[in-house]
Amino acid sequence: MGFFRFPNSIAVVVVFGMMNLFNFGFGARKLASLYEAPPMAIRYHNGALLQGYVPVSILWYGNFTAPQKAIVLDFFLSLGSRPKEADGVAPAVSRWWNTVQVYMKRAGKKDAKVILAKQITDDKYSIGKFLQKPQISKLSQRAGTKYGGVTLVLTAEDVAVEGFCMSSCGFHDWNHRSKSAFIWVGNSVSQCPGQCAWPFHQPIYGPQTPPLQPPNADVGIDGMIINIATLLAGTATNPFGNGYFLGSPAAPLEVATACPGVYGKGAYPGYPGDLLQDDITGGSYNAAGVGTRKYLLPALYDPVTSRCSTLV
After folding, report:
1. CA 109 to CA 131: how far, in whole Å?
2. Could you give the dihedral angle defined by the CA atoms of residues 228, 233, 236 and 240, in that order, rounded to the nearest 10 degrees?
3. Among residues 100, 106, 91, 75, which one has the least CA distance to residue 255?
4. Number of helices and strands (H, E) in the chain?
5. How far apart are the first and last CA of the chain?
6. What is the arithmetic mean of pLDDT over 216-242?
7. Element containing residue 57 per DSSP (H, E)
8. Is residue 262 within 8 Å of 310, Cβ to Cβ?
9. Rounded CA gap, 76 and 296, in Å?
């Protein structure tokens, strides 16, 4: 199980791409120094990984607009898309996912090919607007995802989830009976954007650098994309708690959480790194998706270089 927590020591951090953890873990560092994750070994514990075709079902809990859904759906479509990367064009989202494939190959597994499966919308708030963590698991079971697939439970901005903002921006786990993985991410825009939507909102703690413009003009959804991407990488490589991780299985450091707050080269506490900027919207991004879509994605820990790998 992976959680996004807010501890005081990076040694026990399980982060999902959020700057709040980055601030807590590295608040004492000088801002002039660049952040480099220390060489470490994210070890494979010989468990199952999500290899081959990985169907992802989405349960939208609460009110999401059509444009908001399109941002998320386009991200998943972008994982398998390979647009030409000409000079001056951002790296493709699929190149970011290639680091996950490196982990698969090292374990002797097939590439993880994410495909969109079904979508379920619960905009009637069938179990209320305050959810306990066990209820997230029950919601994920509505999609009927089988072994080898993932259910993504997304909660709207007016839905409070146990631990949300206080200790968590999202988590991934699995249903032990069906042996199917699931991810939960909440829209934090009206609850804790300074914790769960950085760098698109002023951080609550740490260096107070100006927030960046979100690439899709939606602070909450663009923040969710960062968390979804982080959790998806962690789920693929550690779906059942015995895949790739460092540290305790109860609080694992995974392929994306090993690089908290890092999005581009030169990142340091309070600064996400050197990013690309859209000339028209001013949105900051590091990856190109399908069509004209742009995203900001977290760095992944590269097992080849033993460093955080950024797209730009």
Report:
1. 36
2. -80
3. 100
4. 6, 16
5. 30
6. 98
7. strand 52-61
8. yes
9. 14
Give me the helix-helix angle, 66-79 and 219-237, nearest 10°: 30
Chain segment 22-77, per-residue pLDDT in tens: 333 333 323 334 445 556 789 999 999 999 999 999 999 999 999 999 999 999 99
Which residue is it, tokens 């909440």?
186
pLDDT digits (tens, 9 = 90+) for 150-180: 999 999 999 999 999 988 899 999 998 888 9
* H helix runs in the chain, sequence order: 19-26, 66-79, 93-106, 133-141, 193-196, 219-237
* Distance in angstroms (rounded) separating the CA atoms of residues 90 and 275: 10
What's the domain range around 22? Answer: 2-309
Contacts of 221 by beta carbon, 8 Å cutoff, 6+ apart? 68, 71, 72, 187, 214
Structural domains in the chain (count): 1
Strand, helix or coil for residue 172: strand
Q: d(Cα 141, Cα 150) in Å, to the nearest integer?
A: 10
225, 71 in Cβ contact below 8 A? yes
